[in-house]
Amino acid sequence: MLTVWVLAALVGLLLWCEFKTWRTGVWLSKPLASAAFVVLALELGATDSRYGLWILAGLMACWFGDLLLIPRNRESFKAGILSFLAGHVLYSAAFVVLGVEIGWVLLAGVPLGVAAWFVGRRLMESVSQGLRGPVTAYILVISGMLALGIGASVRSGHTVFLVAPSAFYLSDLAVARNRFLQPGFFNRLVGLPLYYGAQALFAWSVTLG
Questions:
Q1: Which 8-state DSSP code applies to residue 178?
Q2: Is 140 exposed, middle or buried, given 0-12, 13-18 or 19+ CB atoms closer than 10 A?
Q3: Which residue in 20, 86, 112, 184 is a FRET match for 153, CA 20 to 30 A apart?
Q4: pTM higher than 0.85, yes or no?
């Protein structure tokens, strides 16, 4: 529980730094907040199961992604997208290792595919040519990850496999909105708690693997 409280405090500090546009504070608080969810997974036994190892790898990829999104330049942002894309792929692999109901995955893929088309169409109006490929791939991968999470939730009976990827999916939409559509602190106010809550839930889920 101590690590959870530390994570919550660091996310609160990160939000304050973002609100105050204190970049040094962001550089200090964000890596520490992200390290906290990696530590949480290790404390809960991530290395004791195949599922846990995949989740741990995904958390590490997200930690690197968080670092890469701190600088405000296109190349770093592009690298961050690729790092988070790897994280989603690793989470997807974890769900497959855990076991999914394939019928539910396919069923969930229909509305998620429609949503991906609408989101992609809206974003591409503002995405530069050099980022269109990574952004398109990202939209497809996060949609697949959420569909697999739904399948894992139905198979296992645990809602964490639905809630964690759903929160991550929504936090990604907040990041996209901030980057490409309507920048502002509101996106971080909504997106950061969703994101860190999702990572904490992924870390906790290793106890079920």
A1: I
A2: middle
A3: 86
A4: yes
